[in-house]
Amino acid sequence: MPDQASSGVQALDEIVVTAQKRSQNLRDVPLSVSATSGEALRAVTASGDDIRVLSGRIPNLNAESTFGRVYPRFYIRGLGNSDFTLNASQPVAMYYDEVVLENSVLKGMPAFDLERIEVLRGPQGSLWGKNATAGAIHLVSRKPTQETEGYGRVSYGRFNSYNLEAALGGAVAQDTLSARVSVLYQHRDPWVKNIVTGNKLDGYDDLAFRAQLLWTPMAKFDALFQVYGRSLDGSSTLFNGRGVDAQYGVLPFNKYNIALESDHQSDQKVHERGVTLNATYDLGGAKLTSISAYVDGDMFSVGDIDGSPRPALINTTKVDKLQQFTQEVRLASDSGGPLSWQVGGHYFEEWLRYANLTANNTFQTADGQPGFGAYQKARQQSRSAAVFGQITYSLTDSLKVTGGLRYTADKVDFSQDSSSFTPKASDLTAVPNFTTDPFYRAGERGPGPWFLPRYSAEGGKWRKLTWDGSLAYRLNDAVNLYGRVARGYHAGVITGQAMFDPLQKAGPETVTSYEAGAKIQGFDRRLTANLSVFKYIYDDMQLVAYNRTGNGVDRISLINAKGGKGHGFEFEGTLIVTSELKVSANLGYVDTKISGPTLIADPRAAGAQLDITGQPFPFASKWTGSVSAEYAHALDDDATVFLATDWSYRGDENFSLTSGVQPDLRGEGYWEGGARAGYRFKQSEISVWARNITDVSRLTSAVTVNGYAGVFTNPRTYGVQLSTRF
Fold first, then answer.
1. Which CATH class for the 16-725 domain?
2. For 436-452, how does the pLDDT look when each residue is reduced to its tens digit (9 = 90+)?
3. 52 Cβ contact list (under 8 Å, min separation 6)
4. Closest by alpha carbon to 264, among 218, 211, 219, 197?
């Protein structure tokens, strides 16, 4: 609970983070970090929203997906990658309890029973390292304690949606063994009407769990064992297409209605499992930490991506092997004395196998039969090894200097089989079965005797030394200042997006970032305010662009732009105005530009090229921000009534590098708000809530793949929630 200030008004809690792989007060960390508590996250996810709810609520953080509740793509300070292939590698790293989740399918793991979420902005060149050129998102779960504690939360709302979340922990053996078990179950009925069939689409059932054992046999040693999993049975993203149909007229381009020829071409099933062992040993003057983790998952997803009531373009994907192993060992000094340091090593290995099938009626032949189908079976093995170190020295009681280095070696091997075929009529009206239908069976070297079979393989090795350095100066008890420069690196990428062209390969990208900031605390700790300004320069920036072929087909290409640059600022502030009112506000600004000359195919004319120099990065909203307020009035010592509201803003953004000549691939800025009101008594709470209370409808993403299809904001939802803790 917050401390009591000298004024008699409660003070804000001190925020402890692990942004530098050791527990520190947020005010003492010399880089731009946002920390959101698990309690604050639960307040805005009563309707079942996933991790993308952070978009706009954290300054200069954006998130979107064209895969529904899996495969979120994050952008920090405008830096990210809109690549949606199954082996895509993103420059925003995600960690769950210090374990990197590399593949974007794994990044959809639900966020529940968390102590906090940390968002580290800017390249994390030394301690976090792998694929963190833009920054890192770190989810920190609540750990077992010897005290018996837990909570339960039940929420019910519109579209027959309900969320059940609970956790229970405590001692198993006095002073030596404790445990904690957490579970989350989310459900929503289908709510989007398909005007072709009259039925509704876009529901889900999402179950996740985590079990932990903390063993402390002696004061110097502890080991935390975690096992967790997820099972999702729901819908992939529904693509709303624009245009006019001969039978249905103008297509319904809104989030509540859609025109698809079938109700069974937006199914999605995902499974994820993981185990982690985190062990620490106090050597006296230094602590040795070992983190071992294994994660695997699988996914089946089908989507009608042309967004029309005709069987034009159906894409089916199956990830049947997704495994990763990570091992980190580090040795860190204790916090005593003017000098602190840590050194370590990290190893990552991933095995990925997936199949992708597209049945396409865009090239319909004269006799009216489907004209083209494509099959792809891809395999990838990637490895990364790194050694790193960081040292901090207190030059004076008020001034500290920090420097870090990381040397990384990456290796990727990618291969794929691809074939073309003439689809059967049923291929466009039913979900293909990769297992039982002999048409889709695939051997080790291709799917069968159809035309244009091709086998392709490519590999790459990259090595890089990255670094960061910072100065932290405590001006007085209320103000901490810092400056930081960092160099980040993202390994090369190989992809097979164009199934019958040579494999596409983009080289490594690097970014150099400069930032300075102030972290302020005042008014008897009733006010906190963090401000940072930054500038960065990108070299060989990896980008995804649309190329249009001579027959009018949109083909996705992976390129290295010459570079890019950006600058901006972030502000975060919280103020306890009175004993009954607390307000918070965040604001982020970033201005990005692609350096040139950077040429892509001009979508207006086959064979022509377009120089995109000066265009903003994809999904780089110039402005993001949020405001929130809570008023709580105590009725007596055990009861309180409260009213709260929160609003987030996501500014205008380009969805694609061709947005300069395709306005449909541009999103308009919008505000999205929520509200809660309720009654707290002792350790329990009952409340009513509403999300997207103005029912704003804006595009959050869009694609052009032989037609236009957009993805909308969530609908207005509302309901009631009951929670208790002990």
1. mainly beta
2. 443 343 333 334 445 56
3. 63, 64, 65, 72
4. 197
